[in-house]
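Hey all, sorry for the wall of text incoming. These are the two entities for the joint prediction.
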Amino acid sequence: VGIGDDAAVLRVEKRPLVWTIDAQVEGVHFRRAWLSLADIGARSFHAAASDLAAMGARPVAALSSLVVPEAMSARDVVRLARGQAMAARELSCPIVGGNLSRGGELGVTTTLLGAASTPLLRSGARPGDELWLIGHLGLAAAGLGWLAAHDADGRRDRRVTPATDRPRAPSLAPAERRAVRAALAAFRRPHALVRAGRGLAGRARAAIDVSDGLAADAARLADESGVRVVVERAALRRALSPELFTMARLLETDALELAVSGGEDYALLATGEASRRPRFARPIGRVEPGRNALLRDEQGALIPLVGGFDHFRLKRRSAR
Amino acid sequence: VGIGDDAAVLRVEKRPLVWTIDAQVEGVHFRRAWLSLADIGARSFHAAASDLAAMGARPVAALSSLVVPEAMSARDVVRLARGQAMAARELSCPIVGGNLSRGGELGVTTTLLGAASTPLLRSGARPGDELWLIGHLGLAAAGLGWLAAHDADGRRDRRVTPATDRPRAPSLAPAERRAVRAALAAFRRPHALVRAGRGLAGRARAAIDVSDGLAADAARLADESGVRVVVERAALRRALSPELFTMARLLETDALELAVSGGEDYALLATGEASRRPRFARPIGRVEPGRNALLRDEQGALIPLVGGFDHFRLKRRSAR
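and here's what came out:
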């Protein structure tokens, strides 16, 4: 039984259920000037699904709760819901119910149920494990940085089509244009790595999704597992995409800084025995006895891995 | 696995799961001037649980997503969470995870999973059924009305204890004081009728919780079942509490008006064969062929049952 009754009714398999909730709030998680309503709907769904991906779970069903300001029309709500529906189709995870309420600022809260025979926890990392990266780091932050640098007044209309996102500077080379497009796509339409997460189950010992930046989420993994997580700078650099280096140059910043501090890529960080590393995972470090997340430079020196965004401390990222 | 990982992990029985989400937003669903933070936490939890009660389900676990304005301290968040925890204990439904985010206005979104061997739907009412009321109608609206009339500037501090809620007018009789206290309690600390809902399962054919007022929710039941729902005025009047009549007199309004239009009592409305009516349910009408929700007066004339609050149409209730 889906939308329309007091609650949704589901028949589920007996395997453990994995359950998450995620809220995306206007002015905190997104600016409407830089995202279409469909983007907002799709990315909020993928953000919630990313938590299931990090548990090695298959999404089964979703509920959505929208808080809608007076200024938004019913058609606007439909545009947003279309983005949610598109994400739900991509992830084969139907939206079976929800809730609609007025409020002063747009908010999209998504709760997802998933199934996993052996859920991957944050607490399973052991000294000796390799540290694996799945997906891209830093590109979403680069897309956000590009928007902030080229559209600082935030007047971008939601009806503007992706074609107009082409950088205005006519001097960009084709590879630079491709990098900008990739970065904007990473920011606007992140993808939860559900398939990779399921591929990790049974191979990895621990996993977390990188929603708040590598530094913040590697530290959480270290903390929950009671270990030290060491990212090797040379290995991390090798794992970054060419588009990220191009974007770093265009934004006059460092690719590693974007990768370590930038959030919302929804990459996965996992640990496991080297011999069990799946092909889609790139080794970027090691798990050692101790605590905290550190960066080991090319000379072997350990330096703090800093940056990123901790929602629990309720700070806003400055770029917003 | 509970709070602290990317998602919660649950082992559930095989029976159908019932799943709901509910959002309570400052300025729309509540005013902080009239509720303590613990009230806001507790009532948001019961509001969500009421959807499960209406399905005849037993709550199993909850996730909570809080949107917290900058002006709220960590201690304020703890106060609110204590109200949620109290409700969770009352309903034997642990909060196993959640999400915390900044935002411009306080928002509490709760998602609950429940179990029901035979979920009660809104669509099961059949002509010939009796219409049953479980719980009280109108008292929460009377409590809200009392606050609006006696504290219109909304300056009530959240630290004010219930003792100060005693009406200031010294001329109130003891029965009037009791009625005011009952109305304020109904408004501030509603209780989801989970036990009654489970008692309805297997006896009732359809059920809905009365969150937006009898008129609005009876119309939804009629609509979903493709029937006419007729509330008999004399029977409804007999089902109302003495406190409601006292409050109606104090507020210079009509008890029936409060009962028909007032929301947030979280009573249950159900239909079923008269012979199967549980002792805790009071008959207040009948299900007939046709459509819409109507009121039959003491002379047998049918008049529209109007009032209540339709969130989907995104109107604010004037009393807020």
